[in-house]
C-alpha cells in the first residue's frame, strides 16, 4: 500500500448517526414525508446505528413500542429535539416547558442523554414573511441567555439530560458574532452547543475555528454541507431557509463546504466522546432519493475515519 492510499486515522471519539431530517422529515405528520417505518428500515440499511427522534410525533411516542422498533433494527437514540423562543421572556416559559417535558420524557426513556435546542425562526421558512426583527435587543439577549441557562438546569435536574443549543439559519443564533455572544453570555456548565456544520457555513461561520476556540462548549455535532454557488445566490437575494433548501443549498458530502474531514479531526482532538449526526436538509424530496445519499454519505465518513 502506498502512502497516498493509507487509511484515514480512526476517529474513535466520534459516534456517527443520522436523523429523520436526512429523509426529508421536518414535521410530525406530512404527506410529502416517508413513513417512519421506512426511515427506520433504510437508516439501518445505510449503515447507521445512532438516530435522533426528529420532530416529536414522527416516530412512535410510546417508549415501549419505540424501544421494540429501534431495538430489532439495532438502532439507538442519541437525542431528542425541541424548539424554543426564550428570547421573548418569562411569559413563554410555561408553554416552552410543556413542549420540552414531552420530548425530554421520551428522550430519557430511550436512554439518550441530549436535547437539541433550536431557537425560533425570525421569518417564515416558506413564505419569507418577517415574524419578528432579525436582531435582538439587549433585553431580548438577556432573556435568551438566562432562559437557556434555566432550561439547561431544569432539564438536567428533572430528566438527567444535557441541552445542546443549535445555531440555525434564520434564527437569532446564527453568525460567528451571534454564536460567540451567546456562548459568552451563558454558563458553560449548563449550556453546550450543537454545532451544525452546514448551518454555520450557511451563516458564514468556520466550524474548525469554532471548535478550536470554544472546544469546551461543543457538546454535539450535526454534519452537513452547503453548496457554495447556491448559497451565494441565496445570500444575494435574501432567500429564506425553506426555499433555499428546495433549491438544494444543503448538498451531499463531499460536494460542498465545509470539508468534513478537518471538522471531524478537530472534534476528535477535543478528546471527548461526541455524536456526529448526519443531517442533509431535503424537505420535500422524492421518497427514493434519501437512501442512496445516506449510504454514500456513510461510506464517505468511513473514508474520513469515522
TrEMBL record:
Domain Xylose isomerase-like TIM barrel: 41-243
InterPro entries: IolE/XylAMocC-like, Xyl_isomerase-like_sf, Xyl_isomerase-like_TIM-brl
Matching Pfam families: AP_endonuc_2
Protein name as it appears in the record: Xylose isomerase-like TIM barrel domain-containing protein
Lineage start: Bacteria, Bacillati, Actinomycetota, Actinomycetes, Kitasatosporales
Amino acid at each position: 500500500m502506498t502512502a497516498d492510499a493509507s487509511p484515514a486515522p480512526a476517529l474513535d471519539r466520534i459516534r456517527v448517526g443520522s436523523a429523520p431530517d436526512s429523509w426529508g422529515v421536518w414535521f410530525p405528520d406530512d404527506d410529502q414525508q416517508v413513513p417512519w417505518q421506512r426511515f427506520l428500515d433504510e437508516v439501518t440499511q445505510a449503515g447507521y446505528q445512532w438516530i435522533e427522534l426528529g420532530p416529536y410525533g414522527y416516530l412512535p411516542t410510546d417508549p415501549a413500542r419505540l424501544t421494540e422498533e429501534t431495538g430489532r433494527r439495532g438502532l439507538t437514540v442519541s437525542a431528542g429535539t425541541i424548539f424554543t423562543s426564550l428570547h421573548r421572556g418569562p411569559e413563554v416559559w410555561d408553554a416552552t416547558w410543556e413542549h420540552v417535558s414531552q420530548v425530554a420524557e421520551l428522550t430519557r426513556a430511550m436512554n439518550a442523554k441530549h436535547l437539541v435546542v433550536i431557537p425560533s425562526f425570525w421569518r417564515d421558512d416558506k413564505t419569507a414573511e418577517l415574524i419578528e426583527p432579525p436582531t435582538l435587543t439587549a433585553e431580548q439577549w438577556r432573556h435568551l441567555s438566562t432562559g437557556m441557562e434555566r432550561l439547561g438546569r431544569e432539564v438536567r435536574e428533572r430528566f438527567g439530560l444535557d441541552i445542546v443549543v443549535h445555531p440555525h439559519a434564520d434564527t437569532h443564533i446564527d453568525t460567528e458574532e451571534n454564536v460567540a455572544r451567546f456562548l459568552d453570555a451563558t454558563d458553560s456548565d449548563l449550556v453546550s452547543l450543537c454545532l451544525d456544520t452546514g448551518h454555520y457555513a450557511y451563516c458564514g461561520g468556520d466550524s474548525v475555528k469554532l471548535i478550536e476556540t470554544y472546544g469546551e462548549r461543543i457538546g454535539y455535532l450535526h454534519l452537513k454541507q452547503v453548496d457554495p454557488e447556491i448559497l451565494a445566490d441565496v445570500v444575494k437575494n435574501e432567500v429564506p431557509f425553506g426555499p433555499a433548501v428546495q433549491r438544494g443549498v444543503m448538498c451531499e458530502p463531499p460536494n460542498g463546504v465545509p470539508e468534513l474531514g478537518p471538522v471531524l479531526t478537530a472534534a476528535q482532538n477535543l478528546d471527548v466522546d461526541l455524536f456526529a449526526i448526519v443531517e442533509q436538509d431535503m424537505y420535500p424530496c422524492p421518497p427514493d432519493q434519501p437512501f442512496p445519499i445516506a449510504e454514500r454519505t456513510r461510506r464517505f465518513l468511513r473514508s474520513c475515519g469515522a
